[in-house]
Amino acid sequence: MPSLIVDRHIGRGGPLNVTLKHLQAFVAVAQEGSFTRAARRLALSQPALTIQMNQFEEELGVRLFDRTTRRVLLTDNGAEFLPTAERLLEDVHSAIAEVRDVAARRRGRVGVATLPSIAVKLMPGMIASFRQAYPGVSVHLLDANASGVQARVRRKEVDFGLASRWAPDEDLHFETVMRDPFRVVCRRDHPLAAGDGPLTWGDLAEQDFLGLAPDTGIRPLVESIPDLPASVRQPPVEVSNIATLEGMLTAGLGVTVLPELALPEDARGRLTSRPLAGPALSRALCVITRRGRSLSPAAQSLRDLIVARLASGPVGDQHG
């Protein structure tokens, strides 16, 4: 921008009262070389356009045009300022087009943090459906334990999370979207594998129980059961993730309880599970968002798809 204009701005001691309409009027007059043609291009009356240009020149403190009865010519200051004004308008138009693309889900980015079991068993089918509907939107999926999911949402690393609630947090909103019942898991040759009816917590009292670490969402839920057997409340073996737990189960080191979504795939069929009752236990899976903050249009669409899909049927129907 010309130094004369900058000096004028500084001399005023305040911000310039310049609008987008002023820039559009200046560029139109400069490009058309005529107030009449510029007014027609902008769908304005010529007196209204003249008022806008007078305001603009007064605000900048320089004359931008030399006017005669026959033609309109740029002054030196006007000629120097024209490329800047054209670039500013182009930047504004580009920015508006980008925002409209984001609003229409033609482009954008969605970040989601979720539990590993959900990332593996639920998200592939839902992301496939979302990408089919909105191919211009990229999805970034991060997996973590329950405490990690909450932390990523709180730190604004992702748009939202999908997990069980690890701990209360006044900065986060938890919207329960489904419940995931717990089952007893053990090797197929384990005594508890016999039968298909529900087992009680008391049935686990004399078993070697394999527990998950306190920073998972599963451990606090298990500990919420009243009169929990001592071997379950203080397990002899404790691990921090489901993959390690599967290895311990396969090796015959004991039994555990897990939500259905977290059950090992166990391609070789070495493990089995039975319902758990007396009392039954389930984890609430929640969409976790920052309280008081709205989602972007793309993130809102993915959130809506997830909620609708989880409400439409049992866990086993969520893979496609």
**Gyration radius, to the nearest Å?**
32 Å
Spell the H/E element sequence: HHHHEEHEHHEHEEEEHHEHEEEH
Distance between the termini: 57 Å
User: What is the percent of helical residues?
Assistant: 40-55%
Judging from the principal axes of the Cα atoms, what is the shape? Answer: rod-shaped
CATH architecture of the largest domain: 3-Layer(aba) Sandwich
Protein name: HTH lysR-type domain-containing protein
Domain HTH lysR-type: 18-75
Pfam families: HTH_1, LysR_substrate
Family: Belongs to the LysR transcriptional regulatory family.
Outline the structure in words.
The chain has 320 residues and is an alpha/beta fold. It has three domains: 101 residues, Orthogonal Bundle (Arc Repressor Mutant, subunit A); 96 residues, D-Maltodextrin-Binding Protein, domain 2; 105 residues, D-Maltodextrin-Binding Protein, domain 2 (3-Layer(aba) Sandwich), CATH 3.40.190.10. It is 42% helix and 22% strand. The protein contains twelve helices and twelve strands. The strands form three sheets. Strands 3, 4, 5, 6, 7, 10, 11 and 12 form an eight-stranded mixed β-sheet that branches. A hairpin with a 4-residue loop joins strand 1 and strand 2. Helix 2 crosses helix 3, helix 2 crosses helix 5 and helix 7 packs across helix 12. The two termini are 57 Å apart. Pfam families: HTH_1, LysR_substrate. It comes from Rhodovibrio sodomensis.
